[in-house]
Amino acid sequence: TILSPSRQILQEGAESSRRQRFIEAFVSGGRVDNITMVMGLHPQYLSSFWKTQYLLLRMDGPLPYHKRHYIAIMAAARHQCSYLVGLHMAEFLQVGGNPAWLQGLHCAPQKLRNLNEINKLLAHRPWLITKEHIEALLKPGEDSWSLAELVQALVLLTHYHSLASFIFGCGVNPEEEQDGGHGCRPPSPHSDSSSASDDSMGGSGGRDAMREVEVLVERMKLLQEGQLEEESVTQEEMATRFELEKTESLLVAPSDITDPSLQSNILCFVEDPEFGYKDFTRRGEQAPPTFRAQ
After folding, report:
1. Are 28 and 41 members of one domain?
2. Which of 170, 182, 233, 273 could potentially form a cystine with 197 if both were Cys, beta carbons 3.0 to 4.6 Å apart?
3. Which residues are catalytic?
4. pTM of the model
């Protein structure tokens, strides 16, 4: 009972801070989006996130505002995150962007299209980036980038690659005004496109997820039982087997998108959609070059 008042004060302080953040969001953008609602559980983190977003998208910089939002669209599209694609398509138009560009990457200026290669590498295999990729973008010419522009563009790309992962990881749902509320999740390799409109934690999507966990647990149990029969199996070998089972069961979604609406809204901003993640360290293979500081 002695600790109750102080705990209550802490809770009230956190609630007040969260409410203040929501008010700021509403004043700034006219609404409180779902990313803000989720991050609002950690007000200090949300405050830092907002400062970063504000600096990247609204403060002075070499890139005009509409191009910043278009780069955000390109980054989010690489990860098939239609939540962010839809969000920044609206922002792009709001700051005076050319609607024709939203028909797809092929309609954007060549200068932006030249970011495609480094965008896909940063999104899926960043260890493959070399100085030649940077030099090609800075090379003098009609569609060349200045160093300041390129730095801001690369920060935007990496920021939105990371934010897409946050959205998927937290199961953030799109706002009601966004397209059907189904585009915030990557397609499940074990469900058809009809389940895409279910709630992220309900419907067939939720049942599929539960079933995958049950199957994984069952396979782990069989491995443990097998260990009793194989006394010679070491603890390290069993750990390796567990990791293999887990990896096989939790494979990432395939790069192709089965939902036609997602195809039209996202793939139009993606060139070379088959390019995806691939392990950079494989046993028996030569390690790729890596950047070293110091």
Report:
1. no
2. 182
3. 81
4. 0.63
